[in-house]
Amino acid sequence: MPLLENENSSGVPQATKAEILYLLNLTFLPVIAFIILLNMRNQLNSESTALEKSHIKQTINASIWAGILMIGINGLIFLLNGINNMWTWVYVIIYLTSIHSALIIFGVIGITKAQGGHFYTYPIISRTCSDSNLTK
Asked: What distance in Å separates the CA atoms of residue 55 and residue 121, rounded to the nearest whole number?
């Protein structure tokens, strides 16, 4: 299957790095990995490939949505049920094992697409990136 990036895989390492940082932001290095992603976006220039720009933009958008979901949903659960309610923790665990896990699976798919030199749009939480909206 041909690469979508003009048969050139020069953007693959940066695209893959962006996807790995997305996963690190969701798992082991929240905020720190997101700051590195933002730094990657700031380093984009006219020589950056569309593949790099797309994956960096997608992972930043997905990270923002993941943060909103994490803080918003868990905050709402705690607000409605209280921290000492047994059901609060049941709901939080259900959230973490379903929604958060789905976000991680999306990231794994993103890594495989990036390594293959293909574009990827995160389902539900992200818009398709086209060349016209990939500018800094």
From this structure: 8
Domain spans of the chain, in order of start = 12-133
φ/ψ of residue 63, rounded to 5: -65, -40
- pLDDT one-digit tens code per residue, 74-127: 999 999 999 999 999 999 999 989 999 999 999 999 999 999 999 999 987 776
pTM: 0.84
Phi, psi of 6 (to 5 degrees): 50, 40
d(Cα 125, Cα 56) in Å, to the nearest integer?
15
